[in-house]
Amino acid sequence: MGQHYLRTYKAFVLEEVKKNLLIIGDLTGNCAACNELGINAYDAKACPQCGTVFKYIASRRLETHPSERFQLARRLAEKRPDLLLIDYLDYQKAAGDKAARDFFSL
Ligand SMILES: [Zn+2]
Q: In angstroms, what is the span from residue 94 Cα to ligand 1's centroid?
């Protein structure tokens, strides 16, 4: 039976995701916790700068290359079976909403 990648929805604590998230761009990744750049996304278990251990991965390429979305998801799942792939736009939107809430509650 062929396998397919389907997006699922699950509740997360945003701070917990941010603390352990590797965001990958076209070539390298960055740490969501400390914004360290140039991290090898296929290799790094932890951030070389702040030492956070990655548990989640999000890819900007999935947004910029929607037709390749599921190929990219498969490649990430093969290369980083230790990380949970989350949707970058979902994360970004939730982080933006939280920043706005924090700002207005001051
Ligand atoms: Zn870091």
A: 20
Q: Give 74 Cα–ligand 1 centroid separation in angstroms.
A: 25
What is the whole-number distance in angstroms between the Cα of residue 22 and the centre of ligand 1?
9
CA of 44 from ligand 1 middle (Å) equals 11
Query: pLDDT tens, position by position, for the chain (106 residues)?
Result: 888 888 899 999 999 999 999 999 888 999 999 999 999 999 999 999 999 999 999 999 887 888 888 888 899 999 999 999 999 999 999 998 888 888 887 5
Distance (Å) from CA 80 to ligand 1 centroid: 18
Centre of ligand 1 from the C-alpha of residue 4, in Å: 32
- Pull the structure tokens for residue 20: 């352990």
Q: State pTM to two decimals.
A: 0.89
